[in-house]
Specification:
2 domains; about 575 residues; 4-stranded antiparallel sheet; ABC transporter transmembrane region fold; Rossmann fold; alpha/beta
């Protein structure tokens, strides 16, 4: 089932469909849960038989009863352990399936950039997938085993003493209403807890990400109070959920305890001879003890189902959040296919429009062609749509209308993810060596290819001054190199990809004049013979372009013609 097909379903159907990856394990787990019930009934029967044998001083029966009790105890424990292991395996499969969907939606390989923020994305990947998986691990095996287990207990009880079975049946009628009330009671609390968790995640992430700015502004203390308030809000919401769960559980426990107490009182009085139901079979120690031992087992599935009502509300909230993230992820996405395009790539945008959800105007409204091998600069105010236009050309977003095509002398195709080089104003450098950071652009690159990329990006002098050259380890975020040097590492990484289309999003932003010049020169060397489209405020980069376009309210206008490079 594709993501889009799942999205067409109702919320309940979508939540149920999430169990598909683990359904096989859940079925097996439910089967072993039923076996556990049967072995447990047999175990209690053996115990009751042994007690009767002790009362009758039948030594042989005592021995066989103890042997049967030991064997069935081992079988019951083994069946329960196996059921739990299988349910955990199914939960892992469900969580993995959801995380794969989320990965496809959150990363550019999905054919779009998700509008989910980093905090919501992390929350979905870490917590929400587990909430849905835990719900299915608890309820899916139970839905298979609960009815069979209850029927087995009721059948044994009716076989040995039918009045006790009637008490169980009458008490059962009170439980569904309590379970329904428990679920309705928990829903509001689960929604509040979810909102509080999302808010706390966002506050924590923003606080860590902006710690330097907060410290410079002297706002750390104020941010700490905001964080404490968000944590207290989540604490109150969680306690509210726990109170509701405790109250509804207490009501169910009262009903179950009452049923067991009625049966226990009846059996006790019957054994003493004070009560005798007409036409009922005679009660002895074996019968009375067996009924008392199996009665709690009859209510165990209902107790688990009541607990699942609370888990269901949590899982429903989680599934809705996950569904909102993955809803627009296409089932199949064009990817860079071999052989790699070896000619400069032209780009055509035909009646392309793009509008963010909920916006009242188009962010991009373009009808333009970029010639193969040309350098085009796109200028415009911040927020005018430059980065969005680049993401449409790269295939990271899908246009609301119109089409984007890449073309060479022999090929015309939709944008292929991974088929172009991208350099932005933020360079991500890993806590690894310079060589490893450059090799991200081509994991199979040889040493000679890496050296060519270093030369093309103008990094040779930088590498020479580093203590261990290419083997110098950079700290997380690029500690050890300047911002301009980090940009040139990104250029070397892009060069290593061998792409003939380069998309540059403010590649010289926040650089001083010398660093800007060095990065511009590196780009001109690295992109020789390639098609380059750069969104920039830099006069230096615009002056290096063949054509300069200005974007205003999403519309592209030719600003001026600049001499070819």
């Amino acid at each position: 089932m594709t993501t889009n097909e799942m999205y067409e379903k109702s919320d309940d159907a979508w939540l149920a469909a999430c169990a598909a990856p683990g359904r096989r394990w859940f079925r097996l787990s439910g089967t072993f849960r039923t076996l556990e019930t049967l072995f447990t009934i047999t175990r209690w029967g053996a115990l009751a038989w042994t007690a009767q044998a002790v009362m009758n001083r039948a030594g042989a029966h005592e021995t066989w009863g103890l042997v049967a009790f030991a064997v069935t105890s081992v079988l019951a424990v083994g069946a329960g352990w196996t059921a739990g292991t299988l349910a955990e395996r199914g939960a892992r499969a469900v969580a993995t399936g959801l995380r794969q969907q989320l990965t496809g939606a959150l990363l550019p390989t999905a054919g779009r950039i998700s509008e989910a923020g980093p905090a919501e994305a992390a929350w979905a990947m870490v917590d929400l997938a587990e909430d849905v998986a835990d719900f299915h691990a608890q309820t899916a095996p139970m839905s298979r085993s609960a009815s069979l287990s209850m029927v087995a207990v009721l059948a044994v009880t009716a076989a040995v003493h039918w009045p006790a079975a009637i008490v169980l049946v009458l008490t059962t009628a009170l439980l569904p209403l309590n379970m329904r009330l428990a679920g309705l009671f928990a829903q509001h609390g689960a929604d509040r807890q979810s909102a509080a968790t999302r808010h706390l995640n966002a506050v924590v992430l923003d606080s860590f990400r902006g710690m330097r700015t907060l410290r410079e502004l002297g706002a750390v203390g104020r941010r700490g109070r905001t964080l404490a308030t968000a944590a207290e809000r989540l604490n109150k919401a969680t306690l509210s959920v726990l109170r509701r769960a405790f109250l509804s559980g207490m009501v169910m426990d009262v009903v179950i305890t009452f049923s067991i107490a009625v049966n226990a009182t009846y059996i006790g009085l019957s054994l003493l001879g004070y009560v005798q139901v007409p036409h009922a079979p005679r009660l002895d120690l074996f019968t009375g003890l067996l009924v008392l031992l199996v009665c709690p087992m009859y209510f165990a599935p209902m107790r688990a189902r009541a607990s699942a009502f609370h888990q269901r509300e949590r899982a429903t909230v989680a599934a809705c959040a996950v569904r909102g993230i993955v809803k627009d992820t296409p089932a199949e996405v064009p990817r860079a296919a071999g052989p790699r395009l070896t000619e400069p790539v032209g780009v055509s945008l035909t009646a392309v429009r793009f509008r963010f959800g909920g916006a009242d105007h188009d962010t991009v409204n373009a009808d333009v062609e970029f010639a193969p091998g040309s350098w085009t600069a796109i200028t415009g105010a911040s927020g005018s749509g430059k980065s969005t236009l680049l993401s449409l050309i790269a295939g990271l977003r899908r246009p609301s209308a119109g089409s984007v095509k890449w073309q060479t002398s022999s090929v015309r195709q939709a944008p292929a993810l991974g088929g172009c080089a991208w350099v932005g104003q933020q360079t991500v450098l890993l806590d690894a060596t310079v060589r490893d950071n450059i090799r991200l652009g081509g994991p199979e690159a040889t040493e000679r290819q890496i050296r060519r990329a270093v030369d093309a990006a103008g990094l040779s002098g930088v590498i020479e001054r580093l203590p261990e050259g290419l083997n110098t380890r950079l700290g997380e975020g690029g500690w050890g190199v300047s911002t301009g040097e980090a940009r040139r590492i990104a250029i070397a990484r892009a060069f290593l990809r061998g792409a003939r289309l380069w998309l540059l999003d403010e590649p010289t932003a926040h650089l001083d004049a010398d660093s800007e010049r060095e990065v511009a020169e590196a780009l001109r060397r690295a992109t020789d013979g390639c098609t380059v489209i750069v969104a920039t405020h830099s006069f230096l980069l615009a002056a290096a372009a063949d054509i300069v376009l200005t974007i205003d309210d999403g519309l592209l206008h030719e600003a001026r013609l600049v001499n070819a490079r």
